[in-house]
Amino acid sequence: MEKSEAKTTSAIFDKSETLRAALIDLGKSLGATELGFSDIECLPDEKRMGCSRGITVIIRISDGILNQIENEPTQTYFSHYRSVNRLIDNITLRLVLFLEEQGYPSIAIPASQSVSDPKDKFTGAFQHKTGAVLAGQGWIGRSALFIHHTHGPRIRLGTVLTNAPLSTGLPTTESSCGSCRVCVKACPAMAIEGCLWEPGMPRNKLYDAYSCSTHMKVDYQHIGRGAVCGLCVVACPVGKK
Ligand code: SF4
Ligand code: SF4
Known about the structure:
binds iron/sulfur cluster; two-stranded antiparallel sheet; 13% strand
């Protein structure tokens, strides 16, 4: 490598690392538990909205609130779930504004998304867990939930899509569920098939989103209008205290 070329490469690396450190500082100062950085160029262009990098914002859900859940979700869990989503949306908005001040137009994907996709009404504009897996922050459990290495499924996720030059983590390539099947047994809707996740596996091989959604709507209509359950989150031993 020529001397001038090496100098340019090193300047790009420094800028990438400085920007990444500034984003982590900002995110954490606003309440994020962890930020992850992924190279999303392996995804179809329309899914990544023309962006090359994903920034995953993770917030831990309160153990105190999760520990109250026994046979069904609680009103407190429903309120907390929405508060965490609001906090994630505030953080991803602030990250976008910061990136745009640096000259990188960016997109915040809401923590809880509703899009009208005729092929899959249970999907979002961008799958947060795909970004988190590509960032190497955890794996997809038998429950189809994202399982963080430390906090398990006891988290909520948000994403910023950008073209800012950011160094990225190493994608997770295998499940760490091992022989555990606790969530399969815990699901009252029998929606979890019990398969071990592999990269690229379609969601419906892991769980039946329709059965899960119908169970919540019918059985938990009196709690948060049937929008939450949480039993597979609480049952998972990863991150449980
Ligand atoms: S959220 Fe509830 S119904 Fe849905 S998969 Fe988890 S345990 Fe089953
Ligand atoms: S309960 Fe067990 S099988 Fe289910 S996601 Fe957690 S570790 Fe994996």
